[in-house]
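Supplementary Methods S3. Complex input for the cytidine-5'-diphosphate-bound model.
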Amino acid sequence: MVTRIIAIDGPAASGKGTIAKKLAAQFDFAHMDTGALYRLTGWRVLETGGDPENEADALAAAEYLRDNFSPEMTDIPEIRTDEAGNAASKVGVFSKVRQTLDGLQVNFAKNPPGVKKGAVLDGRDIGTVICPEADVKLYITASTEVRAKRRFEELKNKGENKGDSITILSPTYKDVLRDMKQRDQRDAGRDAAPLKAADDAIIIDTSDLSAED
Ligand code: CDP
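Predicted complex, serialized as structure tokens:
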């Protein structure tokens, strides 16, 4: 069976996850949030007392994930924190970590679970590295300030809704903006699969658009 693939890339809080979910629902395709794999890897390093900037620690966590990943793991609330996002971006610099996580993503795209006719994957290198053959490639972006504001609101709402541990971790807008700039630079500046639009991607700036737009 021929599987359709929609590849969506873009920086943090650009709206790519929202668009990916809506497209998957629209076409009844399976959806993979590949950032969750990197967040789970980064979070595991922190949880096991390691350093996300240490390649051996990062690789051990990626290998654990490759061997033990289940979709329910992406619902762990801790991986949505700013701390986990930063750790994700640190482990994502290492090409061995990326290669370890590539198989899960390529397999999902080629054999979407639930025998779906297609897959939507969102991340940083889907159109360039994971699925260069994708039928449609979207690159979703927005200004840094708009993205930081969105992420700040998201984290604030999660903190208010999910209880004490996350409330304590809730950062200020300034923290979120600073972390986002650092993360953008690290993601776009790394040698291994840097964040960039594929040559054949459609670029959408969502700074002045709502999710429905
Ligand atoms: O939700 P947000 O857009 O902030 O980030 P995410 O998609 O959950 O990804 C978190 C981090 O994981 C990113 O900053 C990237 O460094 C890394 N990542 C990656 O390197 N490659 C991917 N395909 C997805 C995420």
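Residues 17 and 122 are 6 Å apart (CA to CA). Strands lie at 4-9, 30-33, 118-123, 136-141, 202-205.
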